[in-house]
Write a structure and sequence with these properties.
By secondary structure, the protein is mostly beta strands. The protein is built from no helices and 10 strands. This is DUF1934 family protein.
Length: 145
């Protein structure tokens, strides 16, 4: 794959949220169609999440122990992630814009250029407006469309 060739992919997101009582509050598998590409040693996955409220355009970027989650639509999010660090971000939704911070425990990515499939794992604790909202474990499984 040349650096900016976009590959049409299916993106299966397996999202697990753990609340402050250490209970798994939600495990959600969800599949969307999107694109995978590589640029400047970074992996990018772009896809649209569609629900009853509309469409949210999502971009996941992973490079050298760092990641970025960007979402734009009826909810918006800009959350940088750096392993073993706490990073400030923002979230905007029905209740307005809020400050976020994430302490990241795991950022892993694997891409097999021959099989044209791979995965991204992100694991972090999220605070919104200074309040702990949960521990999130996200796995994006990426396969050819």
């Amino acid at each position: 794959m040349r650096p900016i060739d976009k590959l049409a992919v299916n993106v299966l997101l397996i999202s697990k949220a753990i609340d402050e009582t250490e209970k798994v509050t939600k495990t959600t598998p969800k599949t969307d169609n999107g694109y995978f590409y590589m640029k400047n040693d970074a992996l990018y996955v772009k896809f649209d999440e569609i629900d009853e409220h509309g469409t949210v355009h999502t971009l996941i970027k992973v490079s050298n122990g760092k990641a970025l989650i960007q979402r734009k639509g009826h909810v918006s999010m800009n959350q940088p992630l750096v392993k073993n660090e706490e990073m400030a971000g923002s979230y905007s939704g029905p209740y307005g814009e809020m400050n976020t911070s994430a302490k990241t425990h795991k950022i892993k990515a694997l891409w097999d250029s021959h099989l044209k499939q791979g995965w991204i794992q992100l694991n972090y604790e999220l605070h919104v407006q200074g309040q702990y909202v949960g521990h999130f474990d996200l796995t994006y499984q990426i396969s050819p469309y």
